Amino acid sequence: MKERDESRVGIRRTLRTDYRRELKKFISEGKGHYRCRFAELAYEMGDMYRKGVGGPTDISRAYYYYLQAEYAAMLRLTVRRNSEDEAFLAKIRLALTQLRRRLGYGSEKLYCSTHPFVLYQALEEGHDLMISFRHMKSGRVKIIGARIPKSGDNECKRSRMLITYDRFHYCELKDFVITYAQNVRGLWYAETEECIRIDSISLFMDELMGNRCDFYYRGKLVAYICAEDYVVSSGRPRYIRF
């Protein structure tokens, strides 16, 4: 039984490694990189979570990866049209339609979360972010995060972030992300500059200030914000229809 469990874990680990390798190619600069196998690997990740291969099922996570597969397949079709990719795109969209019904996702234009999920996604691949806080007239605090590419590893310096908005049913490559903190009870940052460099985020419940999000760089606390929730608005691009 132990060997079987280790084998199941190994399946997921191998697939994630392959997925990250193709993601690195996909986010690199130039349309030629869209011809990589990222669409197939993202689809396999979706299948893995949908069917429970190598672990428990998670249809919300499956939907997340199917959206990435759809986006990658569409971009690949803009480079070169072929019947195989068109059939693959139709297959992905069928899976998305089936999961959307099960998840009960609607057509939201705003999504509120207790954590700034777009910043988490931007940091997922181990990249640093430059963030800034802007006070709005509405009382919200606008948080902007721009990605700083890793050095070395043959990475393209002009590569972008792949951000997935599952509640809005799309994902896209972006240079920066934006979220709005609502009902802010506290904001502090160590630097006087408008932009602050971070490499990790920690969320916990403060007894006095409530939901607190800490921002770190190289293990040092550089900023925190206490807010009830974070809002992201739908800026869905107009996709090419195939």
Structural class: alpha+beta
Number of helices: 5
Shape: globular
Report how far apart the termini are: 47 Å
The portion of residues forming beta strands comes to 25-35%
* Radius of gyration using CA atoms only: 19 Å
Task: Extract low-pLDDT stretches.
Answer: 238-242
Sheet of most strands: 8 strands, antiparallel
- Estimated helix fraction: 25-40%
Helices and strands, in N-to-C order? Answer: HHHHEHEEEEEEEEE
Number of strands: 10
Mean pLDDT: 87
Described by its quaternary structure, the protein is single chain
Provide tags for this entry.
242 residues; alpha+beta; eight-stranded antiparallel beta sheet; two-stranded antiparallel ribbon; 10 strands; 36% helix; 31% strand; globular; disordered C terminus
Protein described:
The chain contains five helices and ten strands. 36% of the residues lie in helices and 31% in strands. Helix 1 (2-26) packs antiparallel against helix 2 (38-51), helix 2 packs antiparallel against helix 3 and helix 3 (59-79) runs antiparallel to helix 4. The radius of gyration is 19 Å and the shape is globular. The protein has helices spanning 2-26, 38-51, 59-79, 83-103, 117-123; strands spanning 110-113, 128-135, 141-148, 161-165, 170-174, 176-189, 196-198, 200-206, 210-217, 220-233.
Summarize this structure briefly.
This protein is an alpha+beta fold.
List the helices and strands and how they pair.
Blueprint: H1 2-26, H2 38-51, H3 59-79, H4 83-103, E1 110-113, H5 117-123, E2 128-135, E3 141-148, E4 161-165, E5 170-174, E6 176-189, E7 196-198, E8 200-206, E9 210-217, E10 220-233
Antiparallel strand pairs: 1-10, 2-3, 2-7, 3-6, 4-5, 6-10, 8-9, 9-10
Helix pairs in contact: 1-2, 2-3, 3-4
